[in-house]
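Re: that chain you flagged

S.,

Sorry for the slow reply, it's been a week of failed gels. I finally had a moment to sit down with the sequence you sent. For the record, here it is as I used it:
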Amino acid sequence: MAEDYDVIVIGAGHNGLVCGAYLARAGLKVKVLERRPVIGGAAVTEEIHPGYKASTFSYLMSLLHPRIIVDLELRKHGLEVLPCSDMFSPLEGDDYIVFSDDVAKTQGQFGRFSNHDAAIYPEFDRYLNESAAIVRKLLWETPPDPSKRDWKTFKDMAGLLWRNRKVGDKVFRIVDLMTMSADDYLKRWFEDTRIRAVLAYYASIGTFAGPRTPGSAYVIMHHIMGEHEGAGGWGFIRGGMGAITAAIESYGKTLGMDVETNSPIAEITVRGGKAIGVVTEDGREYEAKTVVSNASAKALFLQMLDPGHLTAELLRDVRDYRTFSTAFKMNVACERPPQYTGLPKALADGALGDFDYPTYVHIGPTIEYLEAAYDDAKWGRYSARPFITPVSPSVVDESLAPAGKHVVNFFGGHAPYKLDGADWADEKENFKNTVLDTIEEFAPGFSNDIVHAQLLVPEDIEEIVNLPQGHIFQGELSPEQLFFKRPVPHYADYRTPLGGLYQCGSSCHPGGGVSGIPGHNAAREILKDLRRRPG
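Prediction finished late last night. Pasting the structure tokens below so you have them in one place:
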């Protein structure tokens, strides 16, 4: 006999848990079903070697919104943010750039390379943050469907315009960010390729794009969208990123939310055009008035539903939704973190402030370096010199490694989901050596300190956490896949063609990153619909 709930949430990633927690807070009986033996999705902490724990996929808190932290009482349930150093970018030889939230400090760093770029940086910082402030307001909006001609849609569109009526001519800034390449956008301000690379680096993180790809300027802004005032925070999470999802689950449980692991979904049960429950792969049946999918749009529409319930146009749009990934992750247990050749100079200059080691690093010293890494991927090859983000959480979090030892997370690109004329089964070890060779250029001798290295290419990420083609954002953050076109036209409002079936994952607006906002927004829309339902 099927178990009965008000809401079933498919997937215990952070957005699924956020959505479930808000619905439980509204008094609904919520069941969350997770396919893996652990909760968290891509925000998870796992042992990679005896005694060494790593944030296997996502690795740094930067976007989790203060509103959600407060609403779900996450600090009360164990969330603790630890400090992270300013971003350290090693350059060729023994030089470096440190990028800081402190405008004057960054201005001083830029001034070592270009007086012009240093002088203009405060204006650029103000300009970009004014643009980000506009988009931050849109994060909480439910995208309307501009193709509809009904009264409700008209009111929704009018309300959206009214709430953003003060944007004025700043709208042209958003158009620039959506259409220009990161490098062209930055060239308007900065002349030095090393300085532009510090900012353009973000345009390639998790995306199949380079700094000269049209539209890549927006991704710069996406990565600075986090709001850290008040209850927020930017840095490492004590115990790794899995502590975020553990805190959300803990809060939800106080309200009766039930989370069950080892429960992959075979199909969503549909009757009379409405979702009425789910069936797990081992045959368990659950019924509910509402079903919410935290899985990717491709997993939901192409794997969990009978295609007979969907139109040919929707199926085509979902198949065309771009998820091709070139991101890789390498989690390393080691004797000590990388010793960068530029570090002694940075310490002598006092550039790292209270830190005696850079826990947050970008390896990608010039625009040309970043673009060359992308050029390789365009032709189906992994990058000969990948860009790499090394972070060293164990410097501030002793719980992750044995005393005196360390864990370092390396995230970077590009490693195409499919290689041209080769197979990852044959090339994975070669690519691992390429990554290590690149690190050795900037931190000689690090390979000798490695105890164990876990390399995850997009095929691995897809297999483990069911992200389509290993895409960390559940889909490209490109202009044609944002707002009312994310994930597909007509269904960007967290709903689907089937009654009672909703989406709450990163395939939805506003996209990927551990923000919790898609889960929050989906819960809001579900509660609106439940209030409208008769009875």
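What I noticed first: Residues 72 and 251 are 6 Å apart (CA to CA).

Talk soon,
D.
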